[in-house]
Amino acid sequence: MKIYVASSWRNYRQPNVVNNLRGAGHEVYDFRQPGEGDNGFHWSEIDIDWQNWTPEQYITNLSNPIAEDGYKKDYNAILWADACVLVMPCGRSAHLEAGYFVGANKKLIILIDDGEPELMYKLADNVCITTDEVIDMLR
User: Fold this and answer.
1) Helix (H, G, I), strand (E, B) or coil at 7
2) Helix or strand or coil: residue 61?
3) What angle do CA 102, 106, 112 make, to 5 degrees?
4) Radius of gyration of the chain from Cα atoms?
5) pLDDT tens-digit map of 74-105
6) Cα(29)–Cα(17) distance, rounded to whole angstroms?
7) How far is CA 112 from CA 40, 90, 95, 128, 138, in A?
8) Helix (H, G, I), strand (E, B) or coil at 118
9) DSSP readout, 96-117?
10) What is the full DSSP assignment across 21-48?
11) With a cut of 70, which residues of the chain have pLDDT below it?
12) Contacts for 102-105 with beta carbons within 8 Å, 24 or more apart?
């Protein structure tokens, strides 16, 4: 199966999930390394001071060619994938990506971590605690 792993750059579990899914025979898109020699999109490629942008600067920089390229890679991978694994904890982008899979009637599996319960995770096909459970649900 073709899998899109949605998570956060700060999530220490994400690389292991990618490796385990690949080890189980799945094709996996990794936003941290979308291609050979590609270390994924970072706002700091546009501006080292990106965390201090005004809302207007943020909106303007969504159209920056570097941002456009990063977006196209991720979006094309979303279209390519059969399923999404949302690896918690994660933020806004990953949740928006997961929502796309629900709306497109593609499989969504959420791999939870410690944290508060979320009612709308009922939209997912499965909510799992371990990567082994995720792999079983993808069979």
Assistant:
1) coil
2) helix
3) 65
4) 15
5) 999 999 999 999 999 999 999 999 999 999 99
6) 11
7) 24, 10, 13, 6, 16
8) coil
9) HHHHHHHHTT-EEEEE--SS--
10) HHHTT-EEE-TTSSBTTB----GGGT-T
11) none
12) none
User: In this structure, what token pair is assigned to residue 26?
Assistant: 């799945």
Residue with tokens 């009612």: 119
Please return the burial class of 90, using the count of CB atoms within 10 Å of its CB with bins 0-12, 13-18 and 19+. Answer: buried
Q: Could you tell me the end-to-end alpha-carbon distance of the chain, in angstroms, rounded to an integer?
A: 9
- pTM score, two decimals? 0.95
| Domain boundaries defined on the chain | 2-137
Amino acid, res. 56: E
Q: Is 86 helix (H, G, I), strand (E, B) or coil?
A: strand
Q: Cα separations (Å) of 97 from 14, 49, 75, 79, 106?
A: 15, 26, 9, 11, 11
Which CATH class for the 2-137 domain? alpha beta
